[in-house]
From TrEMBL:
Domain of life of the source: Bacteria
Domain HTH luxR-type residues, every copy: 312-369
GO molecular function: DNA binding
One Gene Ontology term from the biological process aspect of the record: regulation of DNA-templated transcription
Record-linked Gene3D superfamilies: Winged helix-like DNA-binding domain superfamily/Winged helix DNA-binding domain
InterPro entries: Sig_transdc_resp-reg_C-effctor, Tscrpt_reg_LuxR_C, WH-like_DNA-bd_sf
Protein name: HTH luxR-type domain-containing protein
Organism: Sphingomonas pokkalii
SMART domains: HTH_LUXR
Transmembrane regions listed in the UniProt entry: none
């Protein structure tokens, strides 16, 4: 019966890889299926012979009685968090009762049983597996205090059946969570770029875009996102956009200027994903034919941060402000009038800036600012 139950629960178990919120339901099924009172899955980090608790989920009963469980057993004083390597099997997946974990007659065994008795539990039987260096997953079961010792053998068999699947699932979950964390970090970086970035299907469906795209494609722009589709306002713009999105297989880059009906023009570069990543972008969803669009409004200069320009080029605050003003097209005379200082003072500052940036003339300085690592960013990063 236990092995039949183990097989039946596998689809729900693997569903926890990308839906960890389903663990409680799975643990409820385990409690009902093998007749235990409490089940908990936990992740630990090992340092020496000690385990440090990281993440956990419990069945509904244990969740409802969490305060009492945390007071008596689920806390840093839990004797189970100290590992005796001599008592652990050499297998990467270990299933142990408390008697096997501590040894018969151990004071730690007596203390664990005393604590469990305070919350009406006995046992327990636990699975401990290492799924990454010094990272462990534990699935532990407890029966009611009145249950007989002999029943624990069923728990051991069930956990041994699930052990290989739990190890695979833990590794899959780790990879998935790492990928999700990397995706979130990359999306956050993309949101801090000056260029608008969109991922579109050949039909113009917008699968993803950064914050700059939402700002750039607002009211009055020559292109807009309407009902999750990218649309150009003019007939010529629609033609050019269609050409960008229908780049030929293997074509590395395509570009166009989308002219406005009213407002600023947009420069667009299309990067077909199949050219960027080859087979890596071809998935079940067929996203290999998608196109990444990079959009820039040439009328909007980079929003350089004074502090970042100071740090990158070794300038004073006043020099950094002047360098940014020059990159935005202001003359020395215009900047002096704007700041309320003499043109002579500004000329002296300008000469110091050219010396510090190894620039022969103002155009060299502006070119270095536009070619710097700061130019793609939206100014100050918060």
């Amino acid at each position: 019966m236990e092995r039949d139950f183990s097989a039946r629960i596998l689809p729900a178990l693997y569903g926890c890889c990308d839906h960890p919120e389903r663990w409680r339901s799975v643990l409820d099924q385990i409690c009902d299926g093998v007749g235990v009172r409490s089940a908990a899955v936990q992740v630990y980090h090992r340092l020496g012979n000690s385990l440090t608790h990281g993440w956990q989920e419990r069945d509904s009963y244990s969740h409802d009685h969490a305060a009492a469980h945390d007071r008596w057993i689920n806390n840093p004083d839990n004797p189970r968090l100290t590992i005796n390597p001599d008592l652990l099997p050499k297998s990467p997946v270990s299933v142990l009762t408390d008697r096997e974990r501590f040894g018969q007659g151990s004071p730690m065994l007596a203390e664990t049983r005393r604590r469990l008795a305070q919350i009406g539990l006995r046992g327990g039987t636990g699975l401990l597996l290492e799924f990454a260096p010094s990272r462990y997953l534990s699935l532990i079961l407890h029966r009611r205090i009145e249950d007989a010792d002999a029943i624990d053998g069923n728990d051991v068999r069930m956990l041994r059946d699930l052990g290989p699947h739990l190890q695979t699932m833990a590794r899959l979950s780790t990879k998935l969570q790492s990928a999700q964390a990397a995706e979130a970090a990359l999306a956050s970086v993309m949101d801090r770029l000056r260029a608008a970035i969109l991922l579109c299907s050949p039909e113009g469906e917008v699968r993803w875009h950064n914050h700059a795209a939402a700002r750039m494609l607002g009211e009055g722009a020559p292109m807009r996102i309407v009902e999750r589709r990218l649309r150009a306002e003019s007939a010529e713009g629609r033609h050019r956009l269609q050409q960008l999105l229908a780049t030929a297989p293997g074509q590395e880059i395509a570009s166009a200027t989308i002219e406005p009906v009213a407002g600023a023009q947009i420069q667009a570069v299309a990067l077909p994903l199949d050219a960027l990543g080859g087979d890596a972008t071809a998935t079940w969803a067929g996203s290999g034919s998608d196109v990444a669009l990079l959009l820039v409004d040439p009328a909007r200069p980079p929003a350089f941060s004074t502090g970042a320009v100071m740090s990158l080029f070794g300038l004073t605050p006043a020099e950094a402000q002047l360098a940014i003003a020059l990159s935005h097209g202001l003359s020395l005379t215009e900047y002096a009038a704007q700041r309320g200082v003499s043109v002579g003072t500004v000329r002296i500052q300008s000469k110091r800036i050219l010396d510090k940036t190894d620039s022969r003339r103002q155009s060299d300085l502006v070119g270095k600012l536009y070619a710097s690592a700061l130019a793609p960013l939206q100014g100050q990063i918060h």
